[in-house]
Specification:
- The complex is a heterodimer.
- Chain A is an alpha+beta fold.
- Helix content of chain A is about 40%, strand content about 20%.
- In chain A, helix 1 packs antiparallel against helix 2.
- By secondary structure, chain B is α+β, with helices and mostly antiparallel strands.
- Helix content of chain B is about 25%, strand content about 10%.
- In chain B, the strands form 3 sheets. In chain B, strands 1-4-7 form a 3-stranded antiparallel β-sheet, with no helix packed on it. In chain B, strands 2-3 form a two-stranded antiparallel ribbon.
- At the A-B interface, helix 6, strand 6 and strand 7 of A face helix 2 of B.
Chain lengths: ~200, ~230
């Protein structure tokens, strides 16, 4: 069934790229209907409405909506970053530490690369290893430049490449509920993360 | 579409005060009009005023349309109150894309006669004069000047979405305290105004920096661009 669903998804995405003809529209609707019967209906504001495809640090292809059902804590980084990103990683780790044991399984921590050219799955794996984040609860994602730009737009994260090695970017940690709706955002580095932790605890069950 | 021949330019805000290379590209001669946009939503009903999901547009989306099928104003006035997501989708459906910010700025340096008129006093006065003119978004397209590349309305009609509008990092969040900047941005020391004299450009960047992708505005339209086919 899983494979079958994937084929349908692929078909629907081909159609979605721009459904000018009504025939393609019908296919898309059909594919979406099959999906909707399988997964809970998502709201208008859910990030799971985004059709983008991502590659994980293990080289697996995933769609965001596969994260549905978990509380998702998300941040955008790039692995060659020397300044803010190590601190953002530390912030994520710090948040994770404060989540009670009985809630830990309900939370997924996601790092999305803003430098997909450099951040190959191999590179992301190495980064995960360096930061001792090899457990399943840490997920590292890389997408196309377009999908990354779109995803940043949804998160209100601004970024710009300022040299071949470096990006400027806003430091925002976002918390999404089980349906993919934005529940909380924390801006800045090393800020008091009490509210973020509380938001996760309140959601995770 | 018109071809804009690439080159290097020094943007107002950019990569550590270095010139940016812009590849040659193609750009729509006019902004997308109300009539164009109506055709788009008819072919792609999920982008209609009543159907669009709130992740992709806030309540101001097509605010002045009476219903899903009737816009207000002139058919050949620029389509405005369109979110970034919708503008992006529109261009994809034409086999095009939104222009990158550097492409837009590069093309918009041109007046009637030269590709870079930023030092021409009258040109800057024209742009600033427009910023002070109310409600130009009600005007039809093609009434301003034809620039060096054969493109109309980059100035004088509406402001326009760009693909990477969210690469503007003037401050983290313009409505919040600015003294946290060094914490908000990685590498923020490298960002600075390379040409503070260019007040008009500053206004555009500041506007982009204040927008979010689901926002829309009555003075903000868009046009599409395309890579040059070899």
């Amino acid at each position: 069934m899983k494979n079958f669903k994937y084929i349908l998804l692929t078909l629907s995405l081909v159609a979605i790229s721009c459904n000018n003809s009504s025939k393609k529209d019908a296919e898309t609707v059909a594919a979406n209907t099959v999906e909707n019967t399988e997964s809970k209906k998502i709201s208008d504001m859910s990030i799971y409405n985004l059709p983008s495809h991502w590659t994980t640090q293990d080289g697996n292809e995933i769609e965001l909506k596969e994260l549905q059902g978990k509380v998702v804590v998300m941040v955008m980084i790039y692995t060659s970053c020397q300044a803010a990103c190590p601190r953002l990683v530390a912030d994520m780790r710090n948040i994770e530490k404060q989540i009670p044991e009985d809630k830990k399984d309900f939370v997924q921590y996601v790092f999305v690369s803003i430098d997909p050219k450099t951040d190959t799955p191999e590179r992301l794996t190495a980064f995960a290893k360096e930061n001792k984040m090899e457990d399943n609860k840490w997920l590292f994602l890389r997408g196309t430049e377009d999908d990354t730009r779109e995803f940043a737009a949804v998160l209100a994260v601004n970024y710009k490449q300022i040299s071949p090695m470096d990006f400027s970017h806003s430091n925002i940690i976002s918390v999404f509920d089980q349906g993919g709706e934005l529940a909380h955002q924390q801006e800045g580095l090393g800020v008091d993360n009490k509210e973020t932790v509380q938001a996760i605890i309140d959601l995770a069950k | 579409m018109s071809i804009v021949k690439g080159g290097a330019y020094l943007p107002l805000y950019g990569a550590a005060n270095k010139t940016v290379k812009v590849e040659s590209f193609m750009m729509d001669v006019y902004p997308v009009t109300n009539e164009d946009y109506l055709n788009f939503v008819e072919e792609n009903p999920q982008w209609k005023k009543s159907k669009i999901i709130s992740l992709f547009a806030d309540k101001s989306y097509l605010a002045k349309w009476k219903n899903d099928e009737s816009f207000s104003g002139l058919p050949n006035a620029p389509a405005t109150n369109v979110s970034w997501f919708a503008a992006k989708k529109y261009c994809e459906c034409q086999g095009k894309r939104l222009p990158k910010m550097d492409e837009w700025e590069f093309a918009a340096m041109a007046n009637e006669n030269v590709p870079d008129a930023r030092k021409v006093e009258a040109y800057n006065q024209y742009i600033l004069g427009w910023y002070e003119t109310p409600k130009t978004f009600n005007n039809p397209i093609g009434q301003t000047f034809k620039n060096y590349w054969g493109i109309y309305d980059l100035h004088g009609l509406v402001w326009e979405w760009t693909q990477d509008f969210n690469s503007v990092l003037i401050s983290g969040e313009s409505r919040k305290d600015v003294d946290k900047d060094s914490n908000l941005f990685c590498g923020s020391a490298a960002i600075g105004a390379s040409d503070l004299m260019n007040y008009a450009a500053f206004m555009r960047y500041a506007f982009r920096g204040s927008m979010k992708a689901r926002y829309s505005s009555q003075n903000l339209g868009f046009r599409c661009a395309k890579d040059l086919e070899n």
